[in-house]
Specification:
The chain is an alpha+beta fold and 662 residues long. Among the domains are: 336-509, no CATH class; 517-661, no CATH class. The protein is 50% helix and 11% strand. The longest helix is centred in the middle third of the chain and has 25 residues, at 327-351. The chain is globular, with a radius of gyration of 30 Å. The two termini are 58 Å apart.
Length: 662
């Protein structure tokens, strides 16, 4: 009872911040899902993190392992859980009761931005417009729990089956809208193994020997011109297995039809993989988006009070300052770049329409410091409370309804003094927080290149001219940067986001570089600061969730009903130890031998030594390879170049831009 009362008191104290954070978010142009906020303790937070943000998941040992890892990470490494929120309508966010008020406010503003991203990014709509995720996952949990409680089914078999499927959970086609396996259509029929066809004919052994002698059977088995399917490589391996797979029966040594629990478990795990895919595909965008708007609300709009600001600044420093590839920091900086670049373009477009200003004489005729002074926000939006009597209800930057309420006495002055943003509209807030005049971005306008000036002038279709720079600047739309951010938020994922905005300018300004293992020094070294190399490296980490791209090439490989998988090689070779472990899992879900076609890199020791003396990297030889597992042992064979031409890396593959994204 005491614990519930304590949590209720915390919830009551956060009622106003949650309400006002949502209102501010909507003023800023966000359109979030409704959010339910829950107060949880330390252990409950660890459990939720282990469960991926939900209160109930199917029974399996992985959750306990993840819970233990999370608990130890926080206990021994000093990690702090600020929030967890799920993609659902309404969204559910969990606040840890031990966090102070500044942290809770930061979490709330962060969550409102996440809920906006969930609702408006098209990649989340690939799963469906009404996710009802919590209800779906609870149904899945009940289904698996019922199977585990069935005395006819061995619980260990179910857990092992789940292990097999989870090993392949990222092998779906995340660029295709979700459909159940029943709706998933296969282009061509399956091929059947000759032995299985003969079994179905129920022929006597004498007839089999007379009509189908061993020589004929062997010849047929080795005929590689039998029916193949699918017609083109299929990336949704889980759907393919659900439709065409069989379970391997160790007792009989044969493939048998899936039992009901096996097929249903495979299908529900596939559905969950599709549900979580958009979050993996948009990690940089989503976290950067939430960090950007959290900062806008907490710092720029003073949602954190003076006595809370130091704590909030420490909170943000922890989020943005964590080592390694930090999606919060990268995303935050990229969103700022999107905003600044669009705002700069809008200003340049107007200045190039001033009489006498061209892209050639731009730097000689335009005083950019004076332009920045003109772009400073109007005092009435910079400090609306201090200019309350001057506010014009007809001004599109002013919220007429709120202003009327204040002047009529229906809304007290203390409220707008605490939340001055209430007096402003989206247009007013965009001017109030115009990025180019902020101290940290004041050099961005002046860094415009001659190439950008020429390109902007070439595509400038406006014919009206301005008589002065002041007139041109006064006509600049201050919402341009935010409007562009909302457009990008709707349609991009991490790969397309990085491809579009990871420019030379961004890489140079933010000091990004690549590093990798070098054979000449036997350690990791910085290898490039070139934007193209940084982009390639980052996109390799985000394409297909940073995992190898595997597809089904043939479900009747060599006319033996074997499964042939292909690795879409992009210059990074597989870890062969992990590849073999994965094939062992796939075998259990296919029930028959499985093979994987890939490319490996080979380095000649003599070439390495010569390269070391010349202080350069050796050139590897790329060799096509087939790995086959028959349930007992592995075989490996080299393939001729023509056999792997379809999976070999090209310039396009190295950039990891699939054709459909171009």
């Amino acid at each position: 009872m005491d614990d519930r009362i304590h949590k209720q008191r915390i919830a009551d104290s956060l009622e106003e911040p949650t309400r006002e954070a949502n209102r501010l978010a909507r003023k800023l142009g966000l359109d979030p899902f409704p959010v339910n906020y829950w107060i949880v303790d330390y252990d409950e937070m660890n459990e939720l993190i282990a469960y991926g943000g939900f209160q109930r998941r199917y029974p399996h040992w992985r959750w306990g392992m993840q819970y233990d890892r999370q608990r130890k990470q926080r206990q021994f490494l000093g990690g702090k859980a600020f929030e967890i929120v799920n993609n659902d309508d309404p969204s559910n966010a969990f606040l840890q009761e031990s966090n102070d008020l500044a942290d809770q406010k930061a979490v709330i503003t962060h969550v409102e931005a996440h809920a906006d991203f969930f609702r408006n990014n098209e990649w989340f709509r690939m799963f469906g417009t009404d996710p009802e995720a919590a209800a779906m996952l609870e149904r899945h949990a009940e289904t698996v729990a019922e199977y585990m409680a069935d005395p006819e089914i061995d619980r260990e078999e179910i857990e092992e089956w789940i292990d097999h499927v989870l090993c392949l959970e990222d092998n779906i086609d995340q660029h295709r809208p979700f459909s159940t396996s029943g709706e998933w259509e296969e282009d061509s029929p399956t091929g059947e193994d000759i032995d299985e066809q003969l079994e179905e004919l129920d022929l006597s052994s004498e007839v089999k020997r007379e009509v189908f002698d061993d020589e004929w059977l062997e010849q047929i088995s080795e005929d590689e011109d039998g029916p193949t399917f699918p017609e083109s490589p299929e990336r949704d391996l889980l759907a393919f297995l659900t439709t065409h797979g069989k379970a391997y029966d160790g007792d009989s040594g044969k493939a048998v039809e899936y039992e009901e629990w096996q097929r249903e478990t495979l299908e529900l795990l596939r559905k969950e993989a599709y549900y979580f895919a958009p979050q993996k595909m948009t990690k940089v965008m989503n976290e950067g988006w939430a960090a950007y708007w959290e900062s806008k609300m907490m710092a720029d709009e003073n949602f954190a009070t003076e006595d809370e600001f130091v704590s909030y600044a420490d909170h943000m420093a922890q989020v943005l300052g964590s080592p390694g590839l930090n999606p919060y920091k990268l995303g935050f900086e990229l969103w700022q770049y999107v905003e600044n670049r669009r705002n700069r373009r809008a200003v340049i477009e107007h200045l190039l329409r001033v009489e006498g200003v061209t892209w050639r004489n731009f730097n000689d005729t335009v005083d950019l410091d004076a332009v920045l002074e003109e772009l400073e926000p109007d005092p009435v939006v910079d400090d609306p409370v201090g200019h309350l009597e001057e506010l014009d209800p007809e001004d599109p930057r002013i919220d007429r309804e709120i202003l009327s309420g204040v002047r009529d006495g229906e809304l007290d002055h203390e409220t707008v003094e605490t939340y001055p943003w209430k007096l402003l509209t989206y247009q007013g807030l965009a001017e109030r927080h115009y990025s180019l005049v902020k101290r940290e971005h004041r050099g961005f306008l002046g860094s415009v290149s001659q190439n950008e000036l020429e390109r902007t002038a070439r595509y400038l279709f406006e014919t009206d001219r301005y008589g002065s720079i002041e007139a041109a600047v006064a006509d600049v739309d201050r919402t341009a940067g935010w409007d562009r951010m909302f457009e990008v938020r709707e349609s991009h994922n991490d790969v397309t986001f990085l491809d579009a905005f990871l420019t030379d300018e961004f890489v140079e300004d933010n000091d990004y570089f690549t590093y990798e293992y070098t054979h000449t020094t036997d350690d990791f070294r910085v290898t490039s600061t070139d934007a193209a190399d940084v982009k390639k490296k980052l996109m390799l980490q985000f394409t297909n969730f940073g995992k190898p791209t595997i597809a089904v090439e043939d479900g009747n490989f060599r006319n033996r009903n074997e499964l042939l998988l292909i690795h879409q090689y992009n210059g990074v070779e597989l870890d062969f130890r992990e590849a073999k472990q994965t094939l062992e899992r796939v075998f259990e879900l296919w029930g028959r031998p499985v093979a994987l076609k890939t490319i490996r890199k080979e380095f000649d020791e003599h070439d390495i030594e010569v390269a070391r003396r010349r202080d350069r990297e050796p050139e590897p030889t790329e060799q096509g390879t087939l790995i086959r597992f028959d349930g007992e042992s592995f075989e490996r064979e080299d393939l001729p170049d023509e056999s792997v031409a379809d999976i070999a890396a090209t310039d396009l593959d190295y950039d990891t831009k699939p054709d459909e994204w171009l």
